[in-house]
Amino acid sequence: MKIAICTLGCKVNQYETQAMEQELRRRGHELTDFESAADAYIINTCTVTAVSDKKCRNIIRRAKKQTPEAVVAVCGCYAQTDPEAVAALGVDVVSGSSGRMAFLDHLEQQLRQRQAQIVEVDEALRRRAFERLPAGGQEGRTRAMLKVEDGCVNFCSYCIIPYARGPIRSLPLDEAVAQAKQLAAEGYLEIVLTGIEISSWAHDFRNGQTLTDLVEAVCRAVPTLRVRLGSLEPRTITEDFCRRTSVLPNLCPHFHLSLQSGCDATLKRMNRKYDTAHYYESVELLRKHFAFPAITTDLIVGFPQETEEEFEQTLTFIRKCAFSSMHIFPYSRRPGTPAAAMEGQIQKSVQEERARRAAAAADEMEQDYLTRLIGSTLPVLFEEEKGGLWQGHAPNYVAVRAEGHDLHNCLRPVRITAVSGNNLKGALLHD
Known about the structure:
Layout: E1 2-7, H1 11-26, E2 30-32, E3 40-45, H2 50-66, E4 71-76, H3 77-81, H4 83-87, E5 93-95, H5 100-112, E6 118-120, E7 143-150, H6 161-165, E8 169-170, H7 173-185, E9 190-195, H8 211-221, E10 226-229, H9 239-245, E11 254-256, H10 264-270, H11 276-289, E12 294-301, H12 308-321, E13 325-330, H13 348-371, E14 377-386, E15 389-393, E16 399-402, E17 411-420, E18 423-428
Parallel strand pairs: 1-2, 1-3, 3-4, 4-5, 5-6, 7-9, 9-10, 11-12, 12-13, 16-18
Antiparallel strand pairs: 7-8, 14-15, 14-17, 15-16, 17-18
Helix pairs in contact: 7-8, 12-13
């Protein structure tokens, strides 16, 4: 059967999609593009904002309209938090954010003989076991993902994810090392350690292990692979973390540190577990131990009760941190979260204006970071050809373009010659 998958949201969703792709091929199915006719459509949903929910609903409707006779099966975080809304769209299978193999069983059951709608969603907050799925990359990708953690117990006031994913569950260190070795054997040159909140890896084991132990073990087990970290909480960046990881030659010097606001009062309303002083200490530690690291972040603007003065504090703070890249989001009111019920919701026009100002500051910082790379030589893992140039990523996750031939999944040194938008251009060097 021909099956198409649409994935929304984070790298964990992407990881779980590639695991389903592997399993569907093993079961003898053919994967096809989501825009093409198919026997079944899978939508792996996201629920991080109300906008995400709406996008999921639109894609489900599009799939049903595109091929009316096809089986439509929906899984992921939106299906977990609001299965009734998904079921009401008339899909054939509704599952949540776990039980992927059972979800595929239900899909095949509907493909064999169309039956009544199947809705099977557990209670995420009761989960205690880590769901083991095969690591790997989505079709055609050069970078593989290794999910080492699931769940979150931070309960930030704007976030629904703890209710969609449940408590912390971790992949044991020896299993993570074994999966990394398998990915190396399969020919991948880079892996990403991913999870909902990888800073909390091993908290459920209560054995004293930390993310630092995991990073050391994986990097040393696969010395020929670049190892990249997913999003981190500032508490991860300690003197011990930096001292032990900065000597690992295959750890990518790219650190995505969640910020969300550069104002302490706003951080408190968000129920974040740090203040700006702690955050800046983490930034300084990274720059002390790593040579010109890429430090990236997320920022939410227009959070409830955010004053102009508070926003100006955020602008000052992000400039102080000098991020190499930022993702900036106007606050999106998410039903079911404490922030949605707060007084002092900010008008959309004010949110958008603040987002533009923050983006302008972010662009300045990114251009400064990129410009300082001109003249350097970076090892680039090439992925695809675009507009006559091959494009890939350096260890700092900056996109680099260069002339070449048949460079897919090749790691090559590139001499950086220019900045082009938010990318770098360079000349391929011979090894």
